């Protein structure tokens, strides 16, 4: 059954590549405001697909367009971002097919003191960084990276909704060990999982969601990112007409060594 599902998804993805320039590290036709509704892959409930084949970066590209940067490699069946030694970089990557309602599961590990993140509902804004367009599932060495001590009540520790809600319980394994992660998104409800436990729950497009953004570093009063508040509230996952169309899954380059493997999406549409 899984093999049959993968074949169906592969056919959908190839068709999308031919008609819309999706995938294979080529820039898609995403405009500054988001993803067109017809570009969202729709499949039957419970369809689970792999979005990393363990061998190469087929289906992935640089955020904003272009090939996957050389600092990303495949190592023992896992994708690895190699640190640049200077902190947050510009080698963020996205899977080129957007998803709307889904459960994304993955495994991750970090080197000592490493930092990264997983994004969903990302959109490509010319000249804008990925993190002002999408919620972030934090990836972190909690014991050795200073970000774990910043923020409020641990809301920058691993599996947290970065700078907004802390993951509780905080059950991450030490650096060098594999963790399991998960993000479930269904009709605005989002749940983060870490090592098989639900650790965060929140609800998009609600007054509570707006308050979370306003009280974070992405607030409407932050002059560094004047459009981040709108992108993360009224425009998050929506097209120009206000329809929920989803967005892209992305992986962050924060200048550190981080590994990801077994990236799978269960499509809930």
Describe the 3D structure.
This protein is an alpha+beta fold and 269 residues long. The chain has one domain (2-267): Jelly Rolls. It contains 3 helices and 13 strands. The strands form 2 sheets. Strands 1, 3, 4, 6, 9, 10, 11 and 13 form an 8-stranded antiparallel beta sheet that branches. The longest helix has 19 residues, at 2-20.
What's the SSE blueprint?
Elements: H1 2-20, E1 47-50, E2 60-62, E3 72-75, E4 78-81, E5 93-95, E6 102-110, E7 115-122, E8 136-140, E9 179-186, E10 189-194, E11 197-203, H2 207-214, H3 228-232, E12 248-251, E13 258-267
Antiparallel strand pairs: 1-13, 2-5, 3-4, 4-13, 5-12, 6-9, 6-13, 7-8, 7-12, 9-10, 10-11
- For the CA atoms, what is the radius of gyration? 17 Å
CATH class bucket:
Mainly Beta
Biggest sheet details = 8 strands, antiparallel
By CATH's scheme, which homologous superfamily applies? Exo-inulinase, domain 1
N- to C-terminal distance = 18 Å
Tally of alpha and pi helices: 3
Q: What is the string of helix and strand elements?
A: HEEEEEEEEEEEHHEE
Oligomer: single chain
- Structurally, the number of domains stands at 1
Stretches where pLDDT falls below 50 for ≥5 residues?
A: 1-45
CATH architecture grouping = Sandwich
| Counted beta strands | 13
Helix content: 10-25%
CATH topology: Jelly Rolls
The 3D shape can be described as globular
Q: Beta-strand level of the residues, as a percent range?
A: 25-35%
Report mean pLDDT, rounded to a whole number.
86
């Amino acid at each position: 059954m899984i093999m049959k599902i993968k074949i169906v998804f592969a056919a959908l993805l190839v068709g999308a590549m031919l008609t819309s320039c999706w995938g294979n590290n080529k820039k898609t036709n995403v405009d500054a405001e988001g993803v067109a509704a017809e570009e969202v892959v729709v499949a039957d409930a419970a369809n689970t697909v792999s979005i990393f084949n363990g061998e190469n970066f087929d289906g992935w590209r640089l955020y904003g367009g272009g090939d996957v940067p050389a600092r990303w490699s495949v190592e023992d069946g896992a994708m690895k971002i190699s640190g640049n030694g200077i902190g947050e970089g510009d080698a963020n990557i996205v899977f080129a097919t957007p998803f709307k309602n889904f459960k994304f599961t993955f495994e991750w590990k970090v080197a000592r003191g490493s930092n990264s993140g997983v994004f969903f509902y990302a959109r490509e804004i010319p000249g804008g960084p990925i993190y002002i367009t999408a919620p972030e599932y934090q990836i972190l060495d909690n014991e050795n990276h200073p970000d774990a001590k910043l923020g409020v009540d641990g809301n920058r520790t691993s599996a947290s909704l970065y700078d907004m809600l802390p993951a509780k319980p905080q059950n991450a394994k030490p650096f060098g060990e594999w963790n399991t992660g998960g993000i479930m998104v269904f009709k605005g409800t989002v749940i983060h999982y870490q090592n098989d436990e639900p650790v965060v729950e929140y609800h998009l497009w609600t007054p509570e969601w707006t308050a979370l953004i306003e009280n974070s570093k992405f607030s409407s009063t932050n002059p560094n990112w004047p459009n981040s508040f709108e992108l993360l509230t009224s425009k998050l996952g929506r097209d120009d007409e206000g329809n929920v169309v989803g967005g892209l899954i992305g992986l962050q380059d924060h200048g550190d060594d981080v590994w990801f493997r077994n990236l799978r999406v269960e499509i809930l549409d």
